[in-house]
Design brief:
52% of the residues lie in helices and 15% in strands. Strands 2-1-5-4-3 form a five-stranded mixed β-sheet, sandwiched between helices. The protein starts with a helix and ends with a helix.
Length: 180
């Protein structure tokens, strides 16, 4: 009887732990959805290019709790627009190296390219994610989120919400470019 009781107690504890993990994951997913949707609304309401960049660099930095967001592009007009200091030029060939098979997300966290996307603080960045935002067939942005927390971004994490955010960013920048 005591053996059965002990066995049931262990099974019960395991079940409680599993339920707790499921609830914790659900809560984290809900919070992630909330952040992505809020960031998407901010992006969709950007009035102009400068506002779009500000939302990405400042609002999204706070919303996604990252240490730095940098933006690179191969579109010289955008880089030079209003003496834009928030954009760095990047060669088109580099895009093909980081975004294979038309993938818009790179979660590889490879140290050899940290200095390219986070030139001032690359030694402090422990995890990152790169997004490719297509402006048209020729031009693009690469938005890089960097974190000092090595657990922040992982190749294991789901990308559905991130893909949604990338599409929102793409649609908005295409609208802003067409307004000019």
């Amino acid at each position: 009887n005591a053996h059965k009781s002990e066995k049931l107690k262990k099974e019960n504890d395991m079940l409680k732990l599993k339920i707790s993990n499921i609830l914790n994951t659900g809560s984290n997913n809900f919070n992630s959805q909330k952040r992505v949707l809020k960031a998407s609304l901010l992006i969709m309401n950007a009035k102009n290019w400068d506002n779009y960049v500000k939302i990405l660099k400042e609002d999204c930095k706070a919303l996604f709790n990252v240490d730095i967001i940098n933006i690179n592009s191969n579109h010289k007009k955008l880089i030079n627009y209003n003496n834009q200091k928030n954009l760095k030029e990047i060669d088109s060939k580099i895009s093909n190296k980081f975004f294979i098979n038309n993938n818009h997300i790179n979660l590889q966290n490879r140290e050899e390219y940290l200095s390219m996307f986070f030139p001032l603080i690359y030694k402090k960045i422990k995890s990152n994610i790169l997004f490719k935002i297509n402006i048209n067939k020729k031009y693009f942005l690469i938005i890089s989120f960097g974190s000092k927390n090595k657990e922040k971004f992982s190749i294991k994490q789901g990308s559905e919400l991130i893909t949604f955010f990338v599409k929102v960013c793409e649609n908005k920048i295409q609208n802003l470019i067409n307004q000019k």
